[in-house]
Design a protein that fits this description.
Number of helices: 22
Distance between the termini: 50 Å
Shape: globular
Structural class: alpha/beta
Helix content: 40-55%
Length: 478
C-alpha cells in the first residue's frame, strides 16, 4: 500500500486557537480531521489544536503522539478500498500533571478562543438517579475544596476562566464533542455547578458570559488493537503505536454560538444550525439505539463483530422491526433529512465489514447508555399508545447479558463500570424480573408500567428458558 499522505500545508505556520481535552480515537478521527481539511484549503491556520488530558492514562497518549510530532494516522475503512492519511491539526500536547497548571496556563492565553472536550459520556458527573449534575461526586468535591489546583477538566476550565477575567480577557467558548443529548447544556451544568460550590458569584458570571454550544457528532471509530496497528504497518507506519481506524462517514452539526470567533468549518462539511437537537435526537435514537438493539443478541450468541451480527437474519430482522415500529415513529422531522433514508444509511454503516467494530464495544457501559439511548424511545412509544415490546426485549437482553455468560455458557468479562452490581441484580432477576426494573435511576416509573414490565418479564424468562435465537423468532412472529 502507498505511504499515507502528509498534511498538505505548512505545519510550522500553524498557531493554536483551540485547547482540546481528551485525545482519544474519536477526536482524532473527527474534529482533528475537519480542521486538517480546513487547513489544507489554506484557511484559518490560527485555529490549530493544543492537546491536553487530565487523567493518568492521557500521559501515555501524550508520549506516543509527541514521539511522532503530534501527527495522527487515520485509516478510513471503505469497503471499496482502505486509505490512510496523517493528520497534522495538533501542534503540541500539554503535560499531564496533578493540578493541571500547564493546561490552565494554556487556556488562559488570549489566542485560545475555544476549549473542546471528548471525555466520554460518563465523564460529566451526571447523577444517574436525577439526570442532573452531581455536586457530591468525590472528584467534584475535591476540586471545589482546591479550586486553584483542580484535577478535573471542569475545574481546570474554571481556573482558566478566572485568570482570563482577572486579566480582562474575553472568555473562550466551551464545546463538548461527546455523544450526549444537549451536550452543551450538560457541559454548562458541570462547569457552573462546580463553580457554585466554591464561588456562587463567579458561577453566575460563567452562566451569563460563557458560551456552551450544543453539537451532534458522528463517526464509528473502533478501539485500537493489534489489527489496527497491523493496518498501519501495511501503510509503512509500523512505528505508530496509536493509529486510528474509522468508517468513511462523518457528520458534525453545531450551534453557531462562538462569541470569540471560530474556524470556518462550514467550508469542510460541518452543518451550523439552531436545530441541533433535531439531528441529535435522530442520531441518538436511531444509531445509538440501533447499536444497543444489535449488541446484546450478538453478545449472547457469541458473535464477535458488528458486521457479523448484521449478517445474521434474526438480528437484522430485529433491528428493522424495532427501529421502524417503535423508534423511528417517535423521531421528529429533521431539516433537509429523509429519516427513512437516514436509517437505511445507518444500516449500511453497521454492515461495513472493514470497520470490524466489535459487539463487545457496543455492549460496553449499558448502565450509562440504556437510559440515554433506549429508555427515551420506550417512554415516547408508550405515551403515544404504541407497543414497546421490542424495546422491552432489548432491555431484557441487556439484563440477560449482565448475568455474565452467553447462551453457550461462555463467560463474559466485566463490561460495565457497575458490572458486579449489575451481575448480582441480573441473577436475582432471573426468578423475579421486577428486581431489574426497580433500578429507578435507569427506568424511573417504567417499573410501574404494567405493559412494559409484563413484556420485560416475558422476554427475560424466554431468554433464560429458550435462548436468544428462539426468543427472537418468537418476537419476530408477532
Amino acid at each position: 500500500m502507498n505511504v499515507p499522505l502528509l498534511p498538505a500545508y505548512d505545519r510550522t505556520a500553524l498557531r493554536p486557537g483551540i485547547v482540546h481535552i481528551g485525545l482519544g480515537n474519536f477526536h482524532r478521527a473527527h474534529m482533528a480531521v475537519y480542521l486538517d481539511d480546513l487547513f489544507a484549503l489554506g484557511q484559518d491556520h490560527d485555529w490549530a489544536i493544543l492537546g491536553a488530558g487530565v487523567r493518568a492514562g492521557d500521559a501515555r497518549m501524550r508520549e506516543a503522539l509527541r514521539g511522532q510530532d503530534c501527527l495522527s494516522t487515520i485509516i478510513e475503512l471503505d469497503p471499496a478500498g482502505k486509505s490512510a492519511r496523517r493528520i497534522g491539526a495538533m501542534v503540541d500536547f500539554l503535560p499531564v500533571e496533578a493540578g493541571n497548571a500547564s493546561l490552565i496556563a494554556a487556556m488562559a492565553q488570549p489566542a485560545i478562543r475555544i476549549v473542546s472536550l471528548t471525555v466520554t459520556e460518563g465523564g460529566y458527573f451526571i447523577n444517574p438517579a436525577t439526570g442532573a449534575f452531581d455536586p457530591d461526586a468525590p472528584e467534584i468535591r475535591a476540586d471545589a475544596a482546591t479550586p486553584d489546583q483542580p484535577d478535573t477538566a471542569f475545574g481546570a476550565i474554571l481556573a482558566a476562566l478566572r485568570a482570563r477575567r482577572a486579566a480582562g480577557l474575553a472568555p473562550f467558548a466551551v464545546m463538548s464533542c461527546d455523544n450526549l443529548p444537549g451536550n452543551g447544556h450538560v457541559t454548562q451544568a458541570a462547569v457552573v455547578g462546580l463553580a457554585r460550590l466554591s464561588d456562587p458569584g463567579f458561577a453566575d458570571w460563567v452562566q451569563d458570559n460563557v458560551a456552551f454550544p450544543n453539537g451532534m457528532v458522528d463517526r464509528i471509530t473502533p478501539a485500537t488493537g493489534p489489527r489496527e496497528r497491523a493496518l498501519a504497518a501495511s501503510f509503512g507506519l509500523a512505528d505508530d503505536p496509536v493509529p486510528v481506524t474509522c468508517e468513511p462517514f462523518r457528520q458534525w452539526v453545531l450551534e453557531d454560538h462562538f462569541p470569540a470567533g471560530r474556524p470556518a468549518l462550514e467550508k469542510v462539511g460541518v452543518t451550523f444550525t439552531p436545530h441541533v437537537h433535531a439531528y441529535e435526537m435522530m442520531k441518538i435514537r436511531i444509531l445509538n439505539g440501533g447499536h444497543a438493539i444489535i449488541a446484546y443478541p450478538g453478545g449472547l450468541m457469541d458473535i464477535e463483530y458488528v458486521h457479523e451480527a448484521m449478517a445474521h437474519p434474526l438480528i437484522t430482522a430485529l433491528l428493522d422491526k424495532v427501529e421502524r415500529e417503535e423508534v423511528i415513529p417517535s423521531v421528529p422531522p429533521v431539516p433537509d433529512t429523509d429519516i427513512s433514508a437516514y436509517y437505511d444509511l445507518i444500516r449500511s454503516r453497521f454492515s461495513n465489514p472493514e470497520v470490524a467494530d466489535t459487539e463487545r464495544r457496543l455492549c460496553l457501559d449499558g448502565s450509562n447508555r440504556q437510559p440515554k439511548f433506549i429508555v427515551p424511545s420506550v417512554r415516547d412509544a408508550l405515551a403515544a399508545g404504541r407497543s414497546a415490546r421490542g424495546l422491552a426485549l432489548v432491555s431484557a437482553m441487556w439484563c440477560r447479558y449482565c448475568a455474565g455468560t452467553t447462551d453457550s455458557g461462555t463467560v463474559i468479562a466485566p463490561n460495565d463500570p457497575n458490572w458486579d452490581a449489575l451481575q448480582s441484580l441480573s441473577l436475582a432477576a432471573r426468578p423475579n424480573p421486577q428486581i431489574w426494573l426497580d433500578q429507578r435511576h435507569i427506568y424511573g416509573d417504567l417499573a410501574d408500567h404494567p405493559g412494559f414490565a409484563g413484556d420485560f418479564a416475558h422476554w427475560l424468562t424466554s431468554l433464560w428458558d429458550k435462548g436468544t435465537a428462539a426468543t427472537l423468532r418468537a418476537y419476530l412472529s408477532t
